[in-house]
Fold this protein.
Amino acid sequence: MLEKLIARSLGPIIDEPVGDDVHAFVARWGKLGQDLVHTLQSRNGFYSRESALLVRPFSASRAGDLPRGLVAWNEPRRWESYPGAEAFLFFAEDVFGHPFGLSAEGIVSLDLETGDVEVMADTFEDWAKLLDEESNLWTGWTLAHDWQEKNGAIRVGHRLAPRRPFVLGGDYAISNLVLVEEEEGILARARLADQIRRNPVGTEVTYELRPA
C-alpha cells in the first residue's frame, strides 16, 4: 500500500536524492525510520490526494524554500506549545496542517488545535492503508478538492486553516477555510492550543490567523 501511495503521488518536491545523513537523522526510530528513508529515496517529498497529503522532503534545496524540509520543520522551537512533541519526528501532514509523526509507539497524528495525539498505525504500510481507506478522515481530501475547485490550487508551502477553529465549533466547510503559509498555520493554532491547555474549560481564548 505504501508503494501505491508513492506511485500515485506528485513529486518529488526536491529533485536531488537524499544524502547519507538521513540515516543518522532517523536512527532513533528504528524500523519506522528505515521505512521513512525508503519513502524519501523513492520520492524526496511529494503531494498526494490533490495536495491534501504532504510528505516533506528531507531538506529544502535552499534555506527558506517551501515546503520546509524535515530538518528545519522539526526544530524544537516550532513545537514548544505541544508538550511531548520533542519525542516525535513530524514528516507529513493533512490538508489542515495536522502533522503525522514517528514515535516510539508507531505513527501518530497531532491535532494542532488541542495538542491531542493519536497513535494511527504500527507501520508505514498500515499508515498508508488508513490514508487509502479513510482518506477524508485522515487527509481532508474532499474538502481539499472542493476548496480548490472554487479558489484554485493550494500553493506550495501552504495549507488550509479554519477561520473559526474546529475545536471552537468551526465548520468543516470550504467557507470556513483559508489558505495560510505553513509556518503561520502552525503558529496560530499553537497559540490556541497553549491557551486551551493552560486555562479551565469555559475560559475565553483568542485566535488570530493571517491568511496568505
